[in-house]
Amino acid sequence: MKKNIGKTDKMIRIILAIVLVSLDFFRVVDSPYAWILTLLGIVLAGSTLISFCPLYTIFGINTNKSDNS
Fold first, then answer.
1. What is the tally of structural domains in the chain?
2. What are phi and psi of 50, to 5 degrees?
């Protein structure tokens, strides 16, 4: 599994994950489907931790500029 998520992308994903999980946790979004926000936030955080996004592979995107990938 080749790393395809760069530093800037990681920061954006972590911030977005925190926002999405917070929206559900603090009941800002009051819907029976608000748990989907938490799930999406967990997926974003998980892909950030492993520095790999399967969708990036499908679309040929690579934001990782390091040579150690």
1. 1
2. -95, 0
Query: Does residue 19 belong to any structural domain of this protein?
Result: yes
Q: Is residue 18 part of a domain?
A: yes
Q: Which residue segment(s) compose the domain that 7 sits in?
A: 1-31
Of the candidates 3, 15, 10, the one whose C-alpha atom is nearest the C-alpha of residue 57 is 3
Structure confidence by residue, pLDDT tens digits, 20-45: 999 999 999 999 999 999 999 999 99
Q: What is the pTM (predicted TM-score) of this model?
A: 0.87
Give me 33's structure tokens: 């489907």
**Distant-in-sequence contacts of 54-58, Cβ < 8 A, 24+ apart:** 56/4, 56/5, 57/4
